[in-house]
Structure formats: C-alpha cells, structure tokens
Amino acid sequence: MNYISVIDHEQNEVKVDAPPGDTLMEILRDNLFDVAATCSGAGTCGTCHLHVDEAWFGLLPQKDCYEEDTLRDSFHYSATQSRLACQITFDESLSGIRVSLVNSN
C-alpha cells in the first residue's frame, strides 16, 4: 500500500492511501484535510503550503522560481521544509513521506 503520513493542524498523525500520479494536494483534498487550494493546483495561492519532513525533503524534485516566490510570501516559510502540495506528484518512491499541514494565515 502506498501512503503518506499527514500531521494535521491539531498535531494528529494520520496515514492515508496515496495513488501514484496524484499530487499531494489532490490526495490531501480527497481525504478531507483542510487544504483550501484556491488556485486549483496552479501553484499561485500558497494555500496548499505544507512542511515536508526533513528526511524526505531532499528526495523531492527541485522547486521552480514560481513555487519559491509563492512560498517566501508565507508566514510559515521554511527553506528546509516548505513546499506546495500541488507541485509534488506522488509516486511509489515517496510512499511513507511525512508532511505537516501549515496554516495559510
């Protein structure tokens, strides 16, 4: 089973099924986590901002300049953990990835 571990806003950790080919944003949204994703995955709003566990961060594709600009405007920006869930496509190599939801305000 492919899965992601999600730490929600109340610090509860939940494992959810993760279908390959979906973005982390889609997986979070489909599992009813509080992710606004108001730009529908275009990477411009920052409402799917999450923190990736540092052990996994280096395994992800590099951020492009647009994602970096969006993240730097966030109050909870972390150079070593912040990513936009809409910009990460899940595949089997990411099974078990641990992410924390970030308040968008």
Automatic annotation (TrEMBL):
It comes from Cellvibrio fontiphilus. InterPro entries: 2Fe-2S_ferredoxin-like_sf, 2Fe-2S_ferredoxin-type, Adrenodoxin-like, Beta-grasp_dom_sf. It comes from the Bacteria. The keyword Hydrolase does not apply. Its cofactor is [2Fe-2S] cluster. Keywords: 2Fe-2S, Iron, Iron-sulfur, Metal-binding. Belongs to the adrenodoxin/putidaredoxin family. It holds the Pfam family Fer2. Residues 2-105 form the 2Fe-2S ferredoxin-type domain. This is 2Fe-2S iron-sulfur cluster-binding protein. The keyword Iron applies. PANTHER family: FERREDOXIN-2, MITOCHONDRIAL, FERREDOXIN/ADRENODOXIN.
